[in-house]
Queue: 4 jobs
Job 1
Amino acid sequence: MDSNPVNTHHASARRPATVGMLCAVAYAAMLIGQVVPAVQGILSYDPKDVIVVIGGFIFGPLTAVIISVIVSFVEMLTVSSTGPVGFLMNVVSTCSFAVPAALIYKKAHSMKGAIGSLAAGVAVMAAMMCLWNYIVTPLYQGVPREVVASMLPTLFLPFNLVKGAINAGLTLLLYKPVVTALRKAHLVEESSGSGGTGKVHTGALILGVALVATGVLLILVLLGVL
């Protein structure tokens, strides 16, 4: 443990700067995601969750919540047309994916732990969004609750599982390069994030590519392209 107060001060000063940068990247990712057409006109793919969960892996679940709230709030003020309801659903969706993943990864700090934590995050997010869409969508869209209930297993659940799989795959592909870049820029300490040797894990790359490719194909199916 470093007892040098100067180093401790520098580390504490770096963290807000790094979180701010992650917020900016997450916002940019959200803008990029807007080029993807919405499924059934109501469900949009959002890649910002990748950056949020990476922030959670590095700094912990509270940081994931902070990034999610900041980016979703700025999105509401700038490009979103769904107002406070969209902001709330954004935060619930992102946090239900990133927070469980960050909590589990904090306890199981390994590649196996990362894969397991992301799988848990996808499952929690898909379940939470079914529940929240069942509660909120009838109030917001004026759709009968029975109609929304019938759409849960055929639309909401498949979409969120596919979205979660894509974002989990992208996280596996991007986490190590992002952490390495942040370390080289002296924005995070050597002990932050993944603790390995800096080598790319081949299994994680293969799984990440498979998840992203499969998820993209399924999104195209949901959009009616394939």
Job 2
Amino acid sequence: MNQKKFDIGESLRFGWETFKSNIGFLILILLIFWVVEGIFSVPTYATRSQAVILIFDILGLVIAVFVAIAVVKISLRFLAGGPGDFTDLYEGYPRFLDMLVGHILYVLLVIAGLILLIVPGIYWGLKYQFYPYLIIDKDMGSVDAIKRSGQITNGEKGHLFLFWLAVMGINILGAIACGIGLFITIPLTFLAHAHIYRRLEYASEVAQPAASAPATPQPVPPASGG
């Protein structure tokens, strides 16, 4: 039996411990995300003009991509043991185009898979989900990042699916608690997701032959204490 490359409990503990140590920063970041996204979504409900709705839908997509970049940069900073830094909200803009193209390609792959009797969509969603981290962390282009995500998730789809189920359950519980719990569960789960990325990427690099392995694998965060 193949040894699992990551442990769901360990990753969730990392998310929880990191959240507890940076609670003020992470809640404020989440508030900023929600306010900005809310501002750009309000006009779509306040007008019947299709042109205005289209413009704000496009702006909403742009904002969503910048939020994804910020989430990845913040997560990677915590994985490296650094403190929270508000500059992560905007310093990732040079990778905007790669992230936008990667997002579009990923969504198209998942939609195509869902059309093909649903299961392929779930499979491809699991397989290619780590492309944002690879674009930011490894400075890859969108296509290369999607391909690389397929490599590092090899043999781990079932395990990743269990993590998805755990994340859904945790955030449902957060939403049930009058929505307030989402201030805890959303940061916890995106940090856990980043932790899993680092575990998978590290395991993939270590498994490569010495001649083809990257020069310096990124450090893996230590297991969080109970």
Job 3
Amino acid sequence: MSRIEARFSELSANNKKALIPFITAGDPSIEQTLMLMHELVKAGADCIELGVPFSDPMADGPVIQRASERALAGGTTTDDVFDLVKQFRQDDDTTPVILMGYLNPIEVMGYQLFADRAEQAGVDGVLVVDLPPEESHEFNQVFSQNHIDQIFLVSPTTHGERLIRICEVASGFLYYVSLKGVTGSNQLDIDAVSGKLEEIRQHTNIPLGVGFGIKDAKTAAEVAAICDAVIIGSALVERIAEYSDNSEQLKIEVSAFIHAIRNALDK
């Protein structure tokens, strides 16, 4: 059983929902990212989605785009991301880590080498935003052999055969993009999200996570009532940017934010 499957099974047995925060590796620095990963777990995170910095993050809004820019300006590389996960695993061998990013760096390194490096570092899943399910056969084969889950996105406009195909190839959990547009968008419609999740559940039994547009504890609790995992990205990355110059305050603010959301999910 993978770490992701084990974590969702444990949460389900305890009637709890997963909290999955997103941060960008290398923002504000690799050292601070490692500190933040551990603080997120202490504050109640169940999995960590770790962004691999990329120069053209087209699915991301301005907040996460700037995080990638800061990480790249600081010299963060894909090798650094693997080393970061490996360091995290020295003290935490149970929290699932999912790499979120784009296909170009993976193709540059090569599927097999990237999968080997990811498995050796202790990565549990990969979410490649710009990999269409119709073109994912070779990718899925390689990463499955390395025991790494392939997390796929489903959007409000995903229907029919495409939805069925995604459900067939996805593992770990499905990431439902609750809004049309990029990360950090507004105006979340809970009823619309609920209806779409019901449609998705007709084609898969794997956990469903919801992200995009979740900015606070109240919204997180509303979303948690209809899904298996709540994914927090831009609202967290905004706080990291605001307090990046003060490591101690950064730790306090991030911990308090995630702890408040954890409490809301557990009520």
Job 4
Amino acid sequence: MMDGNRRWALKNKIESFLGHKNGVKSAEIAVNFCLDNNIKILSLYTLSIENLKRSEEEKKYLFNLLIEENQKNLEYYISKGVKVRFVGDRSLFPINLVDVINQIEFKTHHLDKLQLNLLFCYGSRQEILSAAKLMAQDFKDGKISLDNITIDNFTDFFWPGNLPDPELVIRTGGEFRVSNFMLYQLAYSELYFIEKLWPELTYEDFKEALKWFSLRKRRFGA
């Protein structure tokens, strides 16, 4: 959960939008860390549905930055085996970005070294409501019975499809909340909070988070 870009910019007395630009560097560090440590899935909370309330100027900057950086890194993703998926409410995706998003996903869909999920126009409450509506429609159409509705197949209707639940959630910026991030999926996730703002994170910070996670005793309620 990449929090603190704008606060980092304020702290460094630069234009607030530039905090997002510097946050990209931490995202690249996170990708490389996962590749180095054989971590198969990385989900980055890039833009929430609530973030769409921000100014048109900032949203335009964020949209363009997301696409520019992923286009720039596309060849790197391919060379390293990174599959890129944009996860969120696609009806809210800016029209001018849809073709680029589809292209990035198509060119990396066969790769399996790391799956990079970019949560974009995403909100977990909205995702759960959408899944409930889709399952209700399948029930109405006779495609599924009440007996066939389970915890496992409910998540098949989620925007990412049936992804494994996140094992470790890292929240930066000194905040202690989950902010509508994968609420259903993180029932047994380990939550790691760090005071540093997202653009300040280093490779060593991710190493410390992984070390902390390795010492956790995951009982899953047992």
